[in-house]
Write a structure and sequence with these properties.
Elements (H helix, E strand, L loop, with lengths): L3 H10 L3 H30 L6 H43 L2 H7 L5 H43 L3 H15 L2 E10 L4 E9 L9 E3 L5 H8 L3 E3 L20 E8 L2 E11 L7 H45 L6 H15 L4 H13 L9 H4 L7 H7 L2 H9 L9 H6 L20 H15 L11 H10 L6 H15 L1
Antiparallel strand pairs: 1-2, 1-6, 2-3, 4-5, 5-6
Helix pairs in contact: 2-3, 3-5, 5-6, 6-8, 9-10, 9-15, 9-17, 10-15
């Protein structure tokens, strides 16, 4: 019995309030019931009640003590309930709004307050669950589009545009902008823009000396939310609508260095940007900064590789006194044709770079063949025909230079299939290859070779017009039209 007593006490202490109330109520009711039962037995056995003053006083004392014990015990239970309510109120102050607290405070008693509190907390939890689900879906959308952009992007510009579009849409913004920081000039260059805005110029520069908000983001290296954007706070040079309220900005950071910032301005729905959205943009900006830095490092490596290959090509070009300067001239003619045909900047760049490297494969041709003073024999021509393939193998390992491979490998192909190394014909030759082939043959005809003198422009034109089955005649006409206008 002694061993079970502590367990019994512990069991009562750890019981629910309802159970404690039931036990105490039974204890309080037991004494009056016992007294009544005593009176009842007396009446049954003696036919009356024989109560002495001493017995009456004892009975009264026991009842009073029982009531007092019940009172204090019940008071202790009620106090626990009130303490629980107060603790609940303290917790509610940290998680509920002032309006919610005022509404709960209208409860008539502690039980009502508890019920309302639990109801409000349940509603808040449901809202939080919905918010978390929306955030989860947003993150999935962002990561899916980023992954898609990484797998399909052709250059860093298209990747940055994809990131900006995705972030702006995910955060419900009206306008997004990605700006790169030029530390020496203390300027921000607008790299990408998305949303309800049209730009008059692609080259937009924002002076940091004219803006406090953006300077604060760069100096603090932390994201900020600006709920109100006044006209005076908009930096000069910024397009109309680029910075609207509310404005969310996050720095592009890598290794504690600021590379720029991303801004999301305006909202398609009412309300300000919250902490979760701020953190999401900060994470996106951090990853974007890494991508920009990796792209820059990759560009430096590929630029060095391109310059090295160009040096090899120039070394080959310099070996033959008759063809010296051939690479630069072919590049010049190719660009002239491309500009006349209205090609975009990227295609013209491919033409220029490929033309400067189109004969780099000759580095693998023996000097006695490459610099032979006279026509080549059949065996020597077989070796010489290998140089386009050798050139392609030199350039192909660099991913950004692979766009040059088509021109480098096929610049000696002909429309009738008599060219080399693959014997392509007709539509198998791309427009850029056709341009480079025309420019290459024109320069070969108008420069002195070891086995013949150079031809005049008129003679070269006649020769090339007779090659109607081999050369694209529209491109031939464009070249001589540009040359005639340049001469005039």
């Amino acid at each position: 019995m002694k061993k079970n007593s502590p367990r019994l006490v512990s069991s009562i202490e750890n019981s629910s309030i309802l159970r404690k109330f039931t036990v105490l109520f039974l204890i309080m009711s037991l004494i009056p019931v016992c007294v009544l039962f005593y009176f009842y037995t007396q009446i049954k056995t003696t036919g009356g009640i024989d109560i002495t003053e001493e017995n009456f006083n004892l009975t009264l004392t026991i009842i009073v003590l029982g009531v007092m014990v019940g009172y204090f015990a019940m008071r202790a239970v009620v106090k626990q309930l009130m303490d629980l309510t107060q603790k609940n109120a303290q917790v509610l102050k940290t998680i509920l709004t002032t309006e919610d607290l005022k509404e709960i405070g209208k409860g008539e008693n502690e039980i009502a307050v508890l019920a309302q509190s639990f109801s409000v907390i349940t509603e808040r939890l449901e809202e939080n669950l919905k918010t978390l689900e929306r955030t989860k879906n947003t993150l999935h959308t962002v990561m899916a589009k980023v992954a898609q952009g990484v797998s399909s992007m052709q250059n860093i510009d298209s990747f940055l545009q994809l990131i900006l579009e995705t972030a702006t849409a995910a955060l419900g913004g009206k306008t997004g902008a990605l700006m790169l920081f030029e530390e020496n000039a203390k300027e921000l260059h607008v790299k990408s823009v998305y949303g309800d805005i049209s730009l008059d110029s692609k080259d937009i520069t924002i002076k940091l000396s004219d803006d406090v908000t953006l300077s604060m983001v760069l100096s603090s290296k932390r994201p900020i939310v600006i709920p109100v954007v006044s006209e005076n706070s908009v930096p000069s040079g910024a397009p109309q609508g680029l910075f609207q309220a509310p404005l969310l900005c996050a720095p592009l950071m890598i290794q504690d260095k600021v590379k720029g910032l991303i801004s999301i301005s305006g909202r398609k729905t009412a309300g300000n940007f919250n902490d979760d959205e701020m953190n999401l943009l900060l994470n996106i900006s951090s990853q974007t900064a890494v991508a920009i830095e990796n792209s820059r490092l990759n560009e430096d490596i590929e630029k060095t590789y391109f310059e090295t290959i160009s040096a090899l090509a120039l070394a080959v070009d310099a070996k033959d006194a008759y063809s010296r300067g051939h690479l630069d001239r072919v590049a010049q003619y190719s660009v002239m044709i491309g500009e006349k045909l209205g090609l975009d900047e990227s295609e013209i760049k491919i033409l220029r770079d490929a033309a400067k490297l189109h004969d780099v494969g000759k580095i693998g041709i023996a000097d006695d063949i490459l610099c032979k003073n006279g026509p080549l024999n059949d065996e020597e021509w077989i070796v010489m025909h290998k140089h386009p393939e050798i050139g392609e193998s030199i350039v192909k390992p660099v991913s950004s230079l692979r766009v040059l491979c088509d021109i480098i490998r096929h610049h000696h192909e002909k429309l009738d299939g008599t060219g080399y190394p693959d014997g392509l014909k007709g539509e198998e030759l791309s427009p850029l290859v056709r341009i480079a082939a025309v420019a290459d043959i024109y320069d070969a005809l108008t420069t002195t070779r070891s086995y013949r003198a150079k031809f005049s422009r008129e003679t070269a034109y006649d020769i090339m017009k007779k090659m109607k089955d081999q050369l694209d005649q529209d491109i031939v006409d464009v070249l001589f039209d540009v040359l005639d206008k340049k001469e005039a």
